[in-house]
Amino acid sequence: MFKRILIANRGEIALRVIRACRELDIESVVVYSKADAGAPWLGLADDAICIGPAPSAQSYLSIPNIISAAEIANVDAIHPGYGFLSENEHFAEVCRSSNIEFIGPSVDAIHRMGNKSEAKAAAKKAGVPLVEGSDGPVASEAQALEVARRIGYPVLIKAVSGGGGRGMRVAHNDISLVNSMMSAQAEADAAFGDPSVYLERYLEGPRHVEIQILGDRRGEVVHLGERDCSIQRRHQKVIEESPSPALNPDLRKKMGRAAVRLAKEVGYHGAGTVEFLVQGKEFFFIEVNARIQVEHPVTETLTDIDLVKSQILVAAGEPLPFKQDDVEFRGHAMECRINAEDPDRGFAPSPGRIEAYAAPGGLGVRVDSHARAGYRIPPNYDSMIGKLIVHGTTRDEAIRRMRRALDEYVIDGIKTTLPLLRRVLRNSYFVAGDYSTRFLDQLLAT
Question: Which single residue of 59, 117, 328, 351 could bond 379 by disulfide (Cβ 3.0 to 4.6 Å)?
């Protein structure tokens, strides 16, 4: 077992990993930028090391700075959290070449899942359904036009190395395809250093449903059910819940088995998420997130399995302590992401000082947040303040509990997405479970 772990991240996920380390009697070391000096989570770790100035490129994305901190702190392993370097195969390779375990999948699995064309090839080999599209990246406008005319408009242009909606465009005809392809390539190149894009058929109003997987180094893989992530804006998730109102038992079983087959195909170990689009009784593979997800507490709440501790144990060589048939799901769980953003101004970031902060509580309520009164949210990083998770015996109870908890939540001094979340939880279509990935855009347009 590891004795000392460095956490190469910040905010609520850094705090989440610190807590897992404490429960495993492992010392934790956090790194931080100058913008995060004095942040609340730093004092809860056993040690904290500054790795550079505020810009991510000079701190949280600086592999040399993080590895230097890890060597100074004499750690056994590095937990990357989510975002930043969590799916960077080069970082994973550098960690392991420095005799520091990277708490995540193998370099090969990160590469194959991070490259969308290779991930689709692996999914096809594993018999996982795919949305019709190009076989790998499109090399020219002529090839893109040929593919689009074959599969039919509208088509979705997606960055091969993309994520978070960047390098993604929808085209409805030949002219928009050519124009959108150029802008998608430019955005992908700027964001990921790779302008490659591919095409797939655009599904109108699907559900976005993901399957949580967990595997060990001995080849055992289980799935821990699904999370419906269809409430999103600009391809960024806002609310997640499980079980999904869109799945029946047969579809749920098929999706879980497909996720496990894909994980075994690439030799996946650690925690990960296989993402699908669901339309009617059909489901189609999108991608794999080869890391812990922001919304992992939804699964933890339903299964009573600590995913972060499981990541650490698997990385240390421990076998999974349970089989697929041992996994039990209880009730209904839901998560709302609270961001420092102003929904009335196009979700513009709202950094600044939190003047008053009061988190909700009570039966079935969990808050994962690094925020507190007096904390100043820097403008340099993701705007998420925290996550509000509730559990109920039924979906109706979970919704009522989430409404109550959102009404209790107080964050003053900055703009937040709390008012929008309260609105969604009282929307009749959401309450009925009748929503798609277009729900939030339609709600905001009214």
Answer: 351
